[in-house]
Automatic annotation (TrEMBL):
GO terms for molecular function: ABC-type transporter activity. This is Multidrug ABC transporter permease. NCBIfam families: drrB. It comes from Methanosarcina mazei (Methanosarcina frisia). InterPro entries: ABC2_TM, ABC2_TM_bact-type, ABC_2_transport, Daunbcin-R_ABC-transpt, Nod_factor_ABC_transporter. The chain crosses the membrane at residues 21-45, 57-80, 101-127, 133-157, 169-188, 227-245. PROSITE patterns: ABC_TM2. It is found in: Membrane. It comes from the Archaea. It is a multi-pass membrane protein. Its main location: membrane. GO terms for cellular component: ATP-binding cassette (ABC) transporter complex. Keywords: Membrane, Transmembrane, Transmembrane helix. Residues 21-248 form the ABC transmembrane type-2 domain.
Length: 250
């Protein structure tokens, strides 16, 4: 089982490494958000918060955004594999579909974490600093949970679809509300009650809050609560994804 998962994981990493344009192109949006929001809204945030640095607040949210986009669109590989016949060859192999699902999930999550780490390094150029190695280790734990959850979600949705354009439309419909309502760009305090309720049921909210608490010491809900919620959701989405993938027809 471990060997199968490893091979599928390695296949996705090789695809990622061979596509240098994918790595470089995926940095454009995070950089735009960091520069535009960091320098545009930074002074207003500093005045409103009594002198706090907006980049310390913003950087974990942008890292989470990078992981979110990379992870959830990993489901595209399932549709590509179906269209080019590789998925059929994989499904008829003497391996379980759960192993296939786990291999693809870990592969997509690893790529998303790499993207997140690259963006995290870029935040240093804009003034963000991590206090200690233990904070970085805890932050990477939340990066892993965010990557696993949204990779599993993307694969689960892709397993039910055969149309690539339809998958992209659905993902765009989901991604933007998930990102903007997660508190990645602005504090959740003092929001209208309806918006605050939606933010509380957004899974990314707890990933961003946990990462912000680990890297910048600014957790709202508590790091332990964030970890418990993200861990449970990640396990659930993998179980659901494995069930849906077991019903895939190439």
């Amino acid at each position: 089982m471990i060997e199968v998962i490893y091979i599928l994981w390695l296949r996705q990493l090789k695809h990622y490494w061979r596509s240098k344009a994918r790595l470089i192109g995926s940095l454009g949006q995070p950089l735009l958000f960091m520069v535009a929001f960091g320098f545009g809204f930074g002074p207003m945030y500093t005045r409103a918060s009594g002198g706090a640095n907006y980049m310390d607040f913003l950087a974990p949210g942008i890292v989470a955004m990078s992981i979110l986009f990379t992870a959830i669109f990993s489901g595209l590989e399932v549709i590509w594999d179906r269209q080019f016949g590789f998925l059929k060859e994989t499904l008829v192999a003497p391996i379980s579909r759960t192993e296939i699902m786990l291999g693809k999930t870990f592969g997509g999550a690893t790529i998303a974490i790499i993207q997140g780490l690259v963006v995290l390094c870029l935040t240093y150029l804009l003034g963000f600093r991590i206090s200690s190695l233990s904070s970085l280790a805890l932050g990477m734990t939340f990066m892993f949970l965010i990557a696993i959850f949204f990779t599993g979600l993307g694969l689960a949705i892709a397993s039910m679809m055969k149309d690539m354009q339809g998958f992209q439309l659905i993902m765009n419909f989901l991604i933007m509300p998930i990102f903007f309502l997660s508190g990645a760009l602005f504090p959740l305090e003092n929001l209208p009650s309806a918006i605050y309720f939606i933010s509380r049921i957004d899974p990314l909210t707890y990933g961003v809050d946990g990462m912000r608490g680990a890297l910048a010491g600014m957790s709202v809900f508590g790091i332990h609560n964030d970890f418990a919620i993200m861990f449970i959701l990640s396990v659930l989405v993998c179980i659901i994804g494995a069930f849906l993938f077991s019903r895939v027809e190439a």
